[in-house]
Design a protein that fits this description.
Helices cover about 40% and strands about 20% of the residues. By secondary structure, the protein is an alpha/beta fold. The protein has one domain: TIM Barrel, CATH 3.20.20. Strands 7-6-5-4-3-2-1-8 form an eight-stranded parallel β-sheet. Helix 2 links the parallel strand 1 and strand 2. The two termini are about 25 Å apart.
């Protein structure tokens, strides 16, 4: 029996219907053409995630201005200035140096930029992110507390790419425990409300472990 191919709209609405009300969906649209994003937009999606600043900027220029753009990839400090005019949330902040540059550019543009700190929870060495000690040092530092044009609104992390669901669950639970522990830190530019974890292959486990934001691409737009 031939499998009926679902449209982007159908896949998007199917996923949205399965998400709890408190979970935000970021549609990961990297490498996808503007037409695909417009199909998702017309189905009601307003939050899109990109991992390359140049590609995201080009799409921002072409698409409706009520779209909320999230930078979900690794960010190079020298590229920050290109996205500050329009970016809503930067997911992968993994160093104090990067935060300083985001704050510097935000001051220049007279904006306040929301960020997530990326925590390394996977076994793979290739994943970026802070460890727990680096996170603690960053949140305690006077340099961080003095950054008035950024707001850290949560944490982000990616589980190991594996079929071992117990391992994935363990890593997500670990990130949730770090997130809970960080509630003790206080500063004017810190308000931890968002826990971004879970992608197409593991988002149900992430939600079970406390995720409030999932990044889903291939399950909406198909593979590359």
């Amino acid at each position: 029996m031939k499998k009926i191919k679902m449209s982007i709209k159908e896949k998007l609405l199917d996923i949205k219907s399965s998400l709890p009300p408190h979970v935000t969906l970021v549609a990961v649209s990297k490498t996808k053409p503007v037409a695909d994003l417009m199909e998702a937009y017309e189905a009601g999606q307003r939050i899109f995630g990109e991992n390359k600043i140049q590609e995201m900027t080009e799409k921002w220029q072409q698409l409706p201005k009520d779209i909320e753009w999230h930078m979900i990839g690794h960010v190079q400090s020298n590229k920050v200035k290109y996205m500050i005019p329009y970016v809503k949330l930067i997911h992968g902040v993994d160093s104090l140096k990067l935060l300083k540059e985001i704050n510097r550019q935000a001051v220049r543009w007279r904006k306040n930029i929301h960020c997530l700190l990326q925590i390394h929870i996977a076994e793979e060495e290739t994943k970026f992110g802070l460890d727990e000690n680096e996170l603690k040092d960053l949140l305690n530092s006077e340099e961080f507390k003095a950054m008035a044009n950024i707001k850290v609104i949560g944490l982000m992390g990616m589980a190991t790419f594996t079929n071992n669901q117990l391992q994935i669950k363990r890593e997500f639970q670990h990130l949730k425990s770090i997130f809970d522990h960080c509630q003790q830190f206080t500063s004017d530019n810190l308000q931890l409300t968002t826990l971004s974890m879970g992608m197409s292959g593991d988002y149900p486990i992430a939600i079970e472990c406390g995720s409030t934001m999932v990044r889903i691409g291939s399950s909406i737009f198909g593979g590359r």
